[in-house]
Amino acid sequence: MTTLTATIEGIGFWARGLPSWDAARAFARGGALVADAPARPSPQLLAPNERRRAPETVAVALEVALAACTAAGRDPATLPSVFASTHGDLGITDYMCSTLASAPRTISPTRFHNSVHNAAAGYWTIGTGAMQPANAISALSATFAQGLLDALAQLATGSDAVLLVGYDGASAGPLAHVSRSEGLLGAALVLSRSTRRDLPRLQAALADGQPSAAVGPLARHAGGNAMAPMLPLLDALAARPVRVEPATVAYDGLAYEELALGAGPGRVLRVVLTPALQPALEPAHA
């Protein structure tokens, strides 16, 4: 497969006790959880009444998506998007199944319309007024890698920038025994074709292999969530400096970080992260 590339312009993150990317970065570098962190996201994209009614999965997806766009300085309405969720909302799925089995006439229309897998993508496009394509992807443990591959393919075929959102909530009821997921987790990346050297970049290609072990601080904190396969990439981004100055680190000797994200049975999306460089200090040959 051809190697696909992207610049990471903005990142959004939310987990229990870590309500932002800044909090996640601090935690990954030896910090603590945020003591007064909210129990659930409160996406300002939605009107107050919609914010209260939206399920947690939608709330976390919108929260991190808007944070990533804000960090990138991008208008959300202009970006095509990829929403990757392993299960959608398993809590609502459990409610739907149990209600249909016991008292089908009492099923809630509101819960029903939030049960579809593309609910978060729908809320996002309505809330931002986005007319760009919005894809919803589910591929079990390969979900995040396949979402990243989709976003990178869109860049390679002409899109200037793409929003990628990965999120999952907790499973419930009998489904928890077959589709395990704990807590609430979401992260978003604004990926672009920019050639700016003051932002981190990634290169990715499909290959045979096994996924990288999830051993970083964020993976240990939220590893029970179904979207945990994305955490090795987030740990790698959180652990590195905001920028690396070639004046203090030999450019040719920079250790580019490589990791493998599970993309299906026996297949991985091999990702190489390159550090951000101060433009004014770039070596002549860079």
Please provide a brief summary of the model.
By secondary structure, the chain is of the alpha+beta class. It contains nine helices and eight strands.
The secondary-structure class comes to alpha+beta
Mean pLDDT: 88
Q: Largest sheet at a glance?
A: 8 strands, mixed
Provide the gyration radius in Å.
19 Å
As a percent range, the share of helical residues equals 25-40%
* Shape annotation: globular
Number of helices: 9
Order of helices and strands: EHHHEHHHEHEEEHHEE
- Beta-strand share of residues: 15-25%
Gap from first CA to last CA: 26 Å
Question: Secondary-structure map with pairings?
Answer:
Blueprint (H helix, E strand, L loop, with lengths): L3 E12 L5 H8 L19 H6 L2 H17 L8 E4 L5 H13 L6 H5 L5 H10 L5 E4 L5 H14 L4 E8 L16 E8 L8 E8 L8 H6 L8 H9 L17 E8 L2 E8 L12
Parallel strand pairs: 2-3, 2-4
Antiparallel strand pairs: 1-5, 1-6, 4-5, 6-8, 7-8
Helix pairs in contact: 1-9, 3-6
Task: Identify the notable features of this structure and list them briefly.
single chain, 286 residues, alpha+beta, 8-stranded mixed β-sheet, 9 helices, 8 strands, disordered C terminus
